[in-house]
Specification:
By secondary structure, this protein is α/β, with parallel strands linked by helices. It has five helices and seven strands; from the N terminus they run ααββαββαβαββ. Strands 3-2-1-4-5-7-6 form a seven-stranded mixed beta sheet. A hairpin with a 2-residue loop joins strand 6 and strand 7. It binds S-adenosylmethionine (SAM). The site of S-adenosylmethionine (SAM) has 21 residues, from helix 2.
Length: 198
Amino acid sequence: MKNDKFFKKAGSYDKLDRRVLLARAAASKIKEQITLNKDMHLIDFGSGTGLLLEQFANDVKKITAIDISPSMNAVLKSKNLPCELNILEIDITKTKPEIKADGIISSMTTHHIKDIQKLFKTFYKMLKPNGFLAIADLDKEDGSFHESDTGVEHFGFEREKFVKLAQNAGFKNCKIQDLYTIKKPYGKYDVFLLSAVR
Ligand SMILES: C[S@@+](CC[C@H](N)C(=O)[O-])C[C@H]1O[C@@H](n2cnc3c(N)ncnc32)[C@H](O)[C@@H]1O
C-alpha cells in the first residue's frame, strides 16, 4: 500500500466531524444552484470515502466515483447507497474516462493535482453540454493545513486564477463563493466553491 497516500487515513476518515460538515455544506450550496433529478449521472472526482457523493445519492440515478486510493474506495464500497454507484479506481492525470455526465462534483481534491488547467480540460470533456461543475477547495494557505504528506501539489488556490483556468478550459457562468471555514487548533482555513457550466 506504499502508493496509496490515504492508506493510514481511510479507516477513520469519516470520524472527523469537520470533514462531514464540509461535505454537507458543499452539497447544500450546490443544491441551491442546481436542480437535480432522478435521470442524472454525476461524477465525484476524488470521491474518497464518499462523504460528498452520499449527499446526492437520493437525488440522482447514478454516481461515478473517481479515486486513485484503494483504501478510500474500500470504505466507499462498504456503504449502501440508494443510487447506482460505479467506482473508477484510476489516476485522473493518466486515465481519461470516456464518460459524459450531467455534473462533476469534487471536494478537497484539486489541490492534489499539479496541472489544474489540464484537469479542467479533462472535466470539460467528461460533461454533457450544459453539464455543471462544482468544486470545493482551499483558499490560498501558508502550507500548514496538511499535517502528513498525502501528495499535496498546491497550498490552496487564488480564486481569480482558479476561475481563469476554468474559463480557459471553456467553462461559462463561472462563479466562486465562500463555502466553509475549517478550524484546526493552529489555524483557520477558508474553503471556496467554484461553480460553472459546460
Ligand atoms: C482529501 S481527499 C477528499 C475526499 C473527499 N472528496 C472528501 O471531501 O471527503 C482527496 C482524495 O483525492 C484522491 N486523489 C488524489 N489524487 C488523485 C488522482 N490523481 N486521481 C484520482 N483521485 C485522486 C485521493 O485518493 C483522496 O481520496
